[in-house]
Design goal:
Distance between the termini: 120 Å
Radius of gyration: 43 Å
Helix content: 25-40%
Low-confidence stretches: none
Mean pLDDT: 90
CATH superfamily of the largest domain: Topoisomerase, domain 3
CATH topology of the largest domain: Topoisomerase, domain 3
Number of strands: 34
Number of domains: 5
Strand content: 15-25%
Largest sheet: 5 strands, mixed
Length: 716
């Protein structure tokens, strides 16, 4: 039997009734900013400080502000203080802080630099808040009751510039989030002015790129920024700025991406040093002080600081991504907007604010004009007014009697009755009523402005120009073009050093560092094996391995393990997965793919192929048709420039050939050109480099054109 206190509910209904209200509250009343650029917690805090007189007054203890804010924001003093800290000049989280602070407010760029308690710090509103609260007493926005209906608070602040994109904002709601980057105030004001003049304007012409209080550099990619400007979604890369101190041989990092902090960067660099991924750093220190952020990296001698920093950009948060999600509450509904749409909504909001201010001014001036018109009427007969008041026996009849005597309404009569006796003279009344014409002109101008959106837009433009002039500052985040960024690949992290490569007849391969080779004993080989080739090169070179199957295999030298002379080395058929009857005949190591490959065939032909023809844009490991398969191969070699070769036809005839006579071919598997004139049962049998032959009398054997049958060998 089920207990009586358990009530069965449908899960869908339960979620809708209980979770959905919570989710909507988080979205609408906590995590997502509105068009004025503030979340409710920001707005309540700043409005409390405004009501405390902290816009023009002296600083007060932060604890005092926190306590007063709880009248509007009952979420606990710690949450309120953390909100306050982020808005301060001392914390350096905003391009244009709203709060001027005194004392330790921590730093946005440090995880461990904690802020002081609220009883120690002092705050007041910064000057830019004059633009946040401008004319707020003129009813530009709606006011609502606070949580206990004891106070009124604004639903929005009538900010006179697009604060929503001037300062960064981030929040996580239920099922959605927002991340808004900051932009330079001067650029935002100019962009908004141009947008007001022409809503079809290309905002990217004026809004160059995001700008952050932390400085650093933004890697400018037009396509990425255009995507963000258009859709409100996308990302871009930020990187740190540094300088090299040649005297102390160290790098000083003084600006870092807004998305990271000092401690994360240092921890990552230490990990890289410990794991030997970075070997050029001897020490890393946090030297941040009152002058600002500084991370110092001590370097080993002969370290290239720019190359090292490019590696650190690749491996650490010194280069980081900022992902944008311009999710904003518009009329209570969350919307992801591009820059142009944000500006459209902000202009619409500002027009509404100004219209409400104008209506407020019209009502106040109309009331004043109405009273002055009544005052004008008694100007004709002041004595009569005094007489009416004096002759009225009951106080409550003074107003009605004045109404009857001068044909005025109760408000005008009340105003006249309240005038002091000393002011009931012609001079005072003439002085006051002289304002009538001025008020009429002002009302006419106010009404014409109220009825014209174009005139209101001119007011907005004027205010934006003033704000840009008074509060604008030059960019803190430097813009660098993508083309100026060196692309860091895996190869940049490979240690480069001199090595010697060995190839044996049985396809064993050794890569031995020269430092190790100097102290080595004899090369260890299999009993029936011998060295067929040796090459000295560096560890980052490309290795070309030609097989008897007319295939070339491509490897990076650093992909092969270092070994010692006392080892047999790597067995290439296992590494390259060669066929059973396939073996490596020749190897070439190159860093620039310059020079030529020479192939000589039994049919008397020789091919000269540029080594660059084996270079590929993709990292291909195997190239077929590496050389011609039309006749058996007799000889192959790599040359950097043309040289002399000795070509043998059979055992009795030979000639000296300069390779410049051989026409260059563009196709790898070309048969080349005929260099030997063959007769029946003869063939090209051997090719040697002259230093490896005992051939004498070069001039006698040298030929000036090909093909040639050669000369009979002279036997000494």
């Amino acid at each position: 039997m089920k207990p009586n206190h358990i009530l069965e509910q449908n899960i869908t209904t339960a979620l809708e009734d209980n979770y959905m209200p919570y989710a909507m509250s988080v979205i609408v009343s906590r995590a997502i900013p509105e068009i004025d650029g503030f979340k409710p917690s920001h707005r309540k805090l700043l409005y409390t400080m405004y009501k405390m007189g902290l816009l023009a007054g002296n600083k007060t203890k932060s604890a005092n502000v926190v306590g007063q804010t709880m009248k509007l924001n009952p979420h606990g003093d710690q949450a309120i203080y953390e909100t306050l800290v982020r808005l301060t000049r001392g914390n350096a989280a905003l391009l244009h802080p709203f709060i001027d602070s005194k004392g330790n407010m921590g730093k946005q760029y440090s995880r461990d630099m904690a802020h002081a308690a609220p009883r120690y710090t002092e705050v007041k509103l910064d000057n830019i808040c004059q633009e946040i609260f401008r004319d707020i007493e003129k009813n530009p926005v709606d006011f609502v009751d606070n949580y206990d209906s004891t106070l009124q608070e604004p639903t929005l602040l009538p900010t006179t510039f697009p604060n929503i994109i001037v300062n960064p904002n981030q929040g996580i709601a239920v099922g959605m989030a927002n991340t808004i980057c900051s932009f330079n105030l001067q650029e935002v004001c100019e962009t908004t002015i141009q947008f007001i003049k022409n809503e079809q304007v290309d905002v990217s012409l004026y809004l160059k790129a995001p700008d952050f209080s932390s400085g650093g550099q933004i890697i400018y990619n037009k396509q990425e920024l255009d995507q963000i400007y258009k859709t409100g979604r996308g990302g871009f890369k930020l990187r740190a700025r540094y300088r090299y101190d040649s005297v102390n041989n160290c790098i000083e990092i003084y600006e870092i991406p807004y998305t990271t902090n000092i401690e994360v960067i240092i921890d990552k660099i230490i990990d890289l040093v410990k794991t030997n991924k970075i070997k050029d750093i001897t020490d890393v220190r946090d030297e941040t002080d009152l002058h600002g952020l500084k991370i110092t990296l001590d370097l080993k001698k002969s370290t290239n600081p720019d190359l090292l920093m490019n590696k650190l950009y690749k491996l650490t948060p010194l280069q980081d991504a900022f992902n944008c999600n311009f999710n904003i509450l518009i009329d209570g509904h969350p919307r992801v907007l591009g820059i142009a749409t944000i500006l459209h909504e902000w202009v619409r909001f500002r027009i509404t604010c100004i219209k409400r201010q104008l209506q407020f001014d019209i009502e106040k001036k109309s009331q004043k004009l109405h009273l002055l018109i009544g005052l004008e009427k008694i100007l004709l007969d002041i004595d009569r007014a005094i007489s009416i008041i004096r002759s009225t026996e009951e106080e409550q009849l003074v107003i009605p009697n004045l109404e009857k005597g001068f044909h005025i309404d109760p408000l005008q009569a009340e105003f006249i009755a309240e005038i002091k006796l000393r002011n009931l003279n012609k001079q005072y009344i003439l002085k006051r009523t002289a304002e009538t014409n001025t008020l009429k002109d002002e009302l006419k101008e106010l009404k014409s402005t109220l009825e014209s959106d174009d005139l209101i837009k001119k007011v907005i433009i004027k205010q934006l120009k003033e704000i840009s002039k008074n509060y604008g500052q030059s960019r803190k985040t430097e813009i660098i073009e993508t083309i100026h960024i060196e692309e860091i690949t895996e190869e940049h992290f490979i240690e480069d050093y001199a090595v010697k490569l060995f190839l044996t007849d049985h396809s064993y391969f050794k890569k031995i560092p020269l430092l190790s080779l100097r102290s080595a004993s004899e090369q260890k080989l299999k009993e029936d094996d011998w060295m067929i080739q040796e090459i000295e090169i560096n560890n980052k070179a490309d290795l070309l391995l030609f097989s008897n199957k007319h295939v070339v295999y491509k490897l990076k030298v650093y992909e092969l393990n270092d070994c010692k002379a006392s080892s047999l080395g790597e067995y290439l058929p296992n590494i390259l997965h060669l066929d059973e009857d396939e073996r490596i005949l020749y190897m070439v190591a190159t860093t620039d793919y310059k020079g030529y490959m020479l192939f000589a065939f039994e049919n008397g032909k020789m091919a000269k192929i540029e080594v660059s023809s084996y270079e590929t844009k993709t990292n291909r490991k195997k190239l077929i048709n590496a050389y011609s398969d039309q006749a058996p191969l007799v000889f192959m070699t790599y040359i950097q420039e043309d040289i002399d070769l000795v070509v043998f036809r059979g055992p009795e005839q030979a000639f000296v050939l300069h390779t410049s006579l051989i026409q260059l071919k563009s196709t790898r598997n070309s048969q080349g050109v005929q260099v030997v004139t063959l007769k029946k049962n003869t063939a090209l049998t051997q090719v040697k480099i002259p230093t490896k032959t005992d051939l004498e009398e070069y001039a006698y054997y040298r030929v000036k054109k090909i093909p040639s049958s050669g000369r009979l060998l002279r036997i000494s």
